[in-house]
Amino acid sequence: MFSGQDLKTILEYVHQVKKRYLILGITLVVVYVCCESVIIKYLLRVVQIKWPLYRCIRYSFIGFFFSCITPSATGGQPAQIYYMKKEGLDIPTSTIILMLVTIEYKFVLVFIGLGILLFGQVLIAMMTTEVQFYLYLGLGLNIFCVVFMSFLVFLPETSRFLMEKLYYILGKLRILKNLDKKMEKLSKSMDTYHEASVFLKKNKLAIFNVFIISLVQRLILFFVTYVVYRSFGLQGHSALQITILQATISISVDMLPLPGGMGISEHLFRCIFTPIFGTAALTLSAMLLSRGISYYALILISALVTFYSHLTIGKIRKKRGLS
């Protein structure tokens, strides 16, 4: 990223920014994580479980931390389920809740991506061929993910039949080992999807409300880049334009098997925002701040919350006589 650039100039740009904007940016990313906490608490309340908001906030930070350090964000939900279990939430309930959060999260990205394709052709035309490739690839992968998960949820019996046949064939071909154990695990997973299907059919308004919260949540995170833009004292490009461009990056890298989209996120930022910030040095300075706030600073905060939770959750339950 910094090859051929004057690092001293880049750091000078960073030191000259207005600090109040950086504080605002960090506040926004904390609010972004807490929005998921609101969703978790809301869905728990829908299933008649009263749960403190501070615990839900803790789960959200834990999920964010493990999502950021694992490829394709695969580690977040298992970690959340583990700590939810330690505090007394049963695994089936927490699994369904987090599954719905994931479906909404992916659906919102697809919704925004399709909106960009329909109404943002002027911006897309300004992008390089490489950036357009990653945008279409990322959107396609997210659409596939949403369609696949929706198929599992809304047609659980058909999904069970097809998945069992696929497992059986893979077992016969000796591609899939320990077929009996794998089939048992598949059966439990399909039961969870069936329960999620029942929940969705009974709580359509709740799902719509979660979609709205998830949409606001995503836009809050994308807006951080505009905050960074203004921290340099720059004007001339609207908040909407910069938010859409940042959304393009997130859509492009979300499904790629890289922890936190590291590397490709920074590369796309440089490609997309150099015309906005004017020079390569200023763009790299903005990238340091934008990624520093929305990813690396939040990893640090989430790591601290996760570490504290790991040390305290079990002890708190023992003191209460719950384990």
Provide structural commentary:
With about 325 residues, the protein is mainly α. It is built from 13 helices and no strands. The protein is globular. About 35% of the residues are buried. The model has no long low-confidence stretch (mean pLDDT about 85).
Structural class: mainly alpha
Tell me the major beta sheet.
Answer: none
Q: Secondary-structure element sequence? A: HHHHHHHHHHHHH
State the oligomer: single chain
Residue share in helix? over 70%
**Number of helical segments?**
13
Q: Taking Cα atoms only, what radius of gyration do you get, to the nearest Å? A: 21 Å
Task: Show the helix and strand layout.
Elements: H1 7-16, H2 19-46, H3 53-68, H4 76-86, H5 91-119, H6 121-126, H7 129-154, H8 156-172, H9 179-202, H10 204-231, H11 239-253, H12 264-277, H13 280-319
Helix pairs in contact: 1-13, 2-3, 2-5, 2-10, 2-13, 3-4, 3-13, 4-5, 5-7, 5-9, 5-10, 5-11, 7-8, 7-11, 8-9, 10-11, 10-13, 11-12, 12-13
